[in-house]
Every structure is written in structure tokens, then in C-alpha cells.
Amino acid sequence: MSGITLSGVTKRFGDTIAVDDVSLTVDDHELLVLLGPSGCGKSTLLRMIAGLEEMTAGEIRIGDRVVNDVEPKDRDLAMVFQSYALYPHMTVRANIEFPLRSRKVPKDQRALQVAEAAEMLDLTDYLDRKPSQLSGGQRQRVALARAVVRRPAAFLMDEPLSNLDAKLRAATRIELVELQRRLEATIVYVTHDQVEAMTMGHRVAILDRGVLQQLGSPQEVYDRPANLFVARFIGTPPMNTVRGRLETAGGTPVVRIGADGVELPGAAAAAAAADGLLEIVLGVRPEHVEIVTDGTPGALTATVEVVEHLGHEQHVVGRLGDGQLVTVRQGSHLPAPPAKSSVRLAVRVEHAHCFDPETGARLG
Fold first, then answer.
1. Same-domain check for residues 285 and 306
2. Is 155 exposed, middle or buried (0-12, 13-18, 19+ CB in 10 A)?
3. Number of domain units in the chain
4. Bridge partners of 355?
5. How is the beta sheet containing 342-347 ordered, strand by strand?
6. Residue 41: DSSP 8-state
7. What is the pLDDT of residues 86-113, one digit of tens each?
8. In this structure, are residues 226 and 214 in contact, taking their beta carbons and an 8 Å threshold?
9. Distance of CA 292 to CAs 110, 237, 299, 346, Å?
10. pLDDT level of residue 114 (50, 70, 90 thresholds)
11. d(Cα 270, Cα 286) in Å, to the nearest integer?
């Protein structure tokens, strides 16, 4: 396997910048996830690595080799598509074997490699079937086997699980992680599903409108989002982000939200003061907000709009006096407040984040 290095990679379609000056390194044996909403440039970036899309600017290295001008077939990469892309008239065996035939691998060696790939992906009993006789999950495993059999320098996967139902998608996620460990494979994996990104990736590269927003481990991007976009994109439900005025009460910096004030973390308060900000956006995960009794100092008053019951937990959505919404995640064993009732919400400030409302950058 080989690492992949992108330096200043840019792609323009006329006046539209699809990928804007992206630089990152995919380490050897790493599963790196490219994550972002539809249209953020992640699939375009993957296609440029594959050589299927021409770059406007930048450099791509696979191992120690610059591949800017190398044809896709000569980059030694295997790609797995969302649509499976199997040949319907061929058996599973023939589909898996196809890239080896194209490379004129000897017949006995082809048979051995196909058998190994089929066993690895639990397809041995299906080798003589056609794709139409397989389930969606089995077809996806055939597409994976066809990529594995080539033994490439790296794998590129473009939303390979998006056509599967939720239960099958979860099972196939586990199979992919196990496969990556077994092969010690280098994988660049594109998805818009943050659950896939958080559960599969060694690191996650988050893109928005062609710009790399943050690169880090799943826990890093969850715990310390670089900006408001990442804070709102990562997490289900997403981070609460409420705008307020910066004030000082008894020598303590607070963010004033309506008639209530929440004490600010020290580093964030110092950064906000240094930047001369009069307003900030306070960010707090739903699990770091709790419903408390009246009279609790530093709590926010909210009106309950809806309670979402999810079995193992419930989400209480409250509206603050100025109209902003705050979600509380709590266990289903706790009593749910009735709709339109007034509640007090306490923020665990040690877990709070502060953001510049204009640039979106995280403070402190």
C-alpha cells in the first residue's frame, strides 16, 4: 500500500471553484474519510486522485510518484462506486476476475486470487450466480472483491454504502473496517453520512464549498470543532449555537442571551476580548445542557416546543425568549416536560465553545 499526498489541489468549472487549494496527506494503511454535504467537492477531489478529473492546479503524489500526468489505469488505484458497476451478464466469478483478465494475469493465478478475495468477503457460495440473483449487500461485496483482487496501492471509495438500507449499511460498515484492518489498506472514503465518518475513519477531512474546514480524528472534530460549520455539521442532533452579547457581571465575563447570562470559559472570554468582539456565538452539545429547577443561577429560560422520543433517549427542543432554539439530550428514564411548558436550561460551561459570529472561527 502507499500513502497519498495532495498539495494545493484546485478544480474550477468555468467561474465555479469546486475544490479550492486542498492540501492533505493520507498516511499509508490509513482510512481517511472525506466528509461534507452534497456539492462540497468531495467526489470531485476523489476523482482527481483517481485521474478521472483533470486538476486546474496542484500536485498529487501516490507514494513517492507525482501522478498529475499519469493515466488512471497506470495509477495503481482501485475504485469502488456507489452504483456497484457490475457487469450483469457475467457471473460473480467473472466480475471479480475481470481486472485480472485486463492485466493478462495467468489463468491459474487468477483463479487463486479470485478464490482468496471471495473467501475474504464471504462470496465463495455465490461465485456462479449473476448479480441479479444477489442482494444489495452481496453486490456491494462483489464490487469490493473486484477491487481487492487487484491488490492496488490504495482504494478509493465513493459513497459505496448509500444504496443499502440502514440495517445492511451498519453491517457492511463493520465488514469494511475489518477488511481494512486485514489488508492494512490505504483507503480514501467519500461520504455525506457523518455516522459512517465517525465510526470508520482514522481521520476525517471535512469540506464545505470546496474548502477543507478541518482535518482530525473523529473525536477531535467532535470535541473541538474548528468553526461553526463543523460544529453544526458534526453531531446528531447538532451542536446548539446561540448568539449573544458579551458583558461583564461582577468581574466575570458572560454572554447575555435575552434576559439570561451564561458565564464564559476563560480562554474563550480572553480571545473574544482580544478580538474586540461585542457579540459571540455560544456553542454547546445537547448532552451538555440539562433541565434544572427554577432558581438555578446562570440558567436559560426556554419554552418547550417538542420532545422527540428515540427509545434509548429523548431530545427536548426549547425556544429561548429571543426565538433561538436549544436542544437537550437526556435519558428516556427522565420525565419529559409537556409541550409549551417553561423550563430552565443549565449549560455545562466547561464543555462550551465560543465562535466569532462573522468569521465562524472557534475562539480560544
1. yes
2. buried
3. 2
4. 281, 362
5. 289-292, 342-347, 299-309, 313-320, 325-331
6. S
7. 899 999 999 999 989 888 889 999 999 9
8. yes
9. 66, 20, 8, 6
10. very high
11. 25
